Amino acid sequence: MSQTRRTSGILLLVLCVAALCALPWLLPPGQLVAAVQMLIAALFACAFNLLAGQGGMLSFGHAAYFGVGTFATIHAMNALGGAGLLPTPLMPLAGGVAGLLFGLVAGWFATMRAGVYFSMITLALAELLHALAPHLKGVFGGEAGLSAMRMPAWGFTFGSDVEVYFLVLAWVVVSLAALYGLTRTPLGRLTLGLRENAHRLRYLGYRPHTLKTMVFALSAMFAGIAGGLQALNIEAGNYVLFEVKLSTDAVLFAYIGGVNAFLGPVLGASILTFLSQTLADITRSWLLYQGILFVLVMLFVPDGLVGLVQRAAKSLRERGLASWLPRAAVSVAAGLLLTCATVFSVEMLQRMFARDYRSLLAMNPDAGWPPIPLFGHDWAPLAPSTWLIPLALFAVGLAACRWALALWRDDAEAAPVLEAAK
């Protein structure tokens, strides 16, 4: 059985890579740029997960190593011009080396403490770099930042989005393969030991501080490679890369996708990057939706979306399609109803409290509250009928949710009986 599952996993990975290779011919040019960002975010999230998910060291300042990798690659692009020993396709190596060296220094100090103290040290280091970057104009270009150009190499001009996409894809696939191989090495097993019980490793003769520093540096190296890919992608960088938002993005990517699965951060990074690219053009409240998703995952699916998919697949194998499909249909329907109610309420409230709407209301106070256009219809914000719609959706969605929970609970209680019958 395990051999069959391993073969299925390999086949699925091959199909995923083949699908990624076909994306340039399936997506419009604008969406291809978003796909490049998704790939870079996936590598950055997996680099973070090496430290947080596998090593048990939650970093709040991983943007520092991403940014260092970006600026190191920009300097290499300007100095070498994409020729010599480091042509354009190999430029992310400069970001990886810079991330590794900076990670060794920062990791040596940060890993002297554990838990929340470690997290605060990583945050302080990143914020220190963020504060210094605008003043170090020779290194980071000041507030204007630095820019560079991709130069032709190996017969490619790298002037089109398609060539940049395949370059980034190649680096991401190779880096993820290296990260996965690292988990299978003795160091990778010791990394799990650091997460579970560092004191036991000390009793076995290992030096936890040295191991933590090595894992920290390797995580920073892959984050630097992701930063180098970002430099090749946008050909510029400024001190905004060191902001805490990028560090929190890595945390969100990893934990929403699932830190206990190797490809969990890839799923989280892909979904959230796609949502940010799509929803940012549709609504001003997209960050709120991202926060709601994170809270729901932490409350109800602590092992992430990958854990949810794994449990659904396990239930499907055990119960069969005829028994599993009605439960899944009720669960999806409940989720869609609650989502519609939430989106309607958030968008109405956002428009009601928007500055433009409040100004319009102040200009004509006697005219009352003007209708709000939403989803192709004008809604009266103070009319009871307007708010009955989300209330009804919430009520039906919660009822469907309780029904789905009852169905899954009955399924779980029946499982031991079925196992005994077998």
TrEMBL record:
Regions that span the bilayer: 7-26, 32-51, 63-84, 90-109, 116-133, 164-182, 210-232, 252-275, 287-308, 328-349
Pfam family, one: BPD_transp_2
Localization: Cell membrane
Organism domain of life: Bacteria
Membrane topology: Multi-pass membrane protein
Keywords noted in UniProt: Cell membrane, Membrane, Transmembrane, Transmembrane helix
Listed CDD domains: TM_PBP1_LivM_like
Main location: membrane
InterPro entries linked to this entry: ABC_transp_permease, LivM-like
Protein name: Branched-chain amino acid ABC transporter permease
Source species taxonomy: Bacteria, Pseudomonadati, Pseudomonadota, Betaproteobacteria, Burkholderiales
